[in-house]
Design brief:
Structural class: alpha+beta
Organism: Streptomyces machairae
Radius of gyration: 20 Å
InterPro entries: DUF5947 (IPR045991)
Number of helices: 5
Protein name: DUF5947 family protein
Distance between the termini: 57 Å
Helix content: 25-40%
Strand order of the largest sheet: 4-9-8-5-6-7
Order of helices and strands: HEEHEEEEEHEEHH
Shape: globular
């Protein structure tokens, strides 16, 4: 055995361990998951968890997971302009999540993560009357995602994991007090990359 051979093997095994450590795994069974994989919403922890294909099947039916875990749907629907002013949210980049108990929360990204506040549930119901597609939003696992910053006009029904991805973009790109020059182009790219799917 040569020193070069042993060193090369050590470097390869270290690189393999690093790659394996960076790979995502199912949060239920620890199996590796591909880049495109399903998510579960953990209602107790208010978190999204990665799941492999076989584990996602366990939560596909209504009532599966005893309400603790809910499979996050994949659909995205681009909406015409939705006048969210009645919801009383003074920011242009926000997502609205109806809850199983009838309440509605608004969440906006910030450098520290998502800011959250309660929205008048009656105002949400009235808004859904003007935009009937909002009545189909699945509580806790889907959201109305809005971006009207810098004159944009994006209104989407999306899975909740898309909203968390958008929050991560803002956290990653934000610089200084005002966000810097990278955050808003990154947010615009995020919205440009959204595609409708059923």
């Amino acid at each position: 055995m040569t020193t070069d051979g042993a060193l090369a093997r050590l470097i390869r095994s270290s690189a393999d361990r690093t790659a394996a450590a960076g790979a995502e795994a199912c949060d239920l069974c620890a199996a590796p998951v591909p880049d495109e994989h399903a998510h579960l919403y953990d209602t107790g922890q208010d978190e999204v968890r990665c799941v492999c294909g076989p584990c996602s099947v366990l939560f596909a039916g209504a009532g599966a997971g005893d309400g603790h875990y809910r499979l996050v749907p994949r659909r995205r629907i681009r909406l015409p302009k939705v006048d969210t002013a009645a919801l009383g949210v003074p920011v242009g980049l926000v997502f609205f999540v109806p809850r199983a108990d009838g309440t509605v929360t608004a969440q906006g990204p910030s450098p520290a993560g998502a800011m959250r506040w309660e929205v008048d549930a009656a105002a949400w119901v009235q808004l859904a009357e003007t935009c009937p597609q909002l009545a189909s939003v699945e509580p806790e696992v889907e959201a109305l995602l809005v971006n009207t910053v810098h004159g944009l006009d994006h209104h989407w029904i999306v899975p909740i994991d898309d909203c968390y991805r958008m929050v991560a973009v803002v956290r990653r790109e934000w610089r200084g007090l005002s966000g810097g020059g990278q955050v808003w182009p990154a947010v615009e790219r995020f919205f440009e990359d959204l595609t409708e799917r059923s």
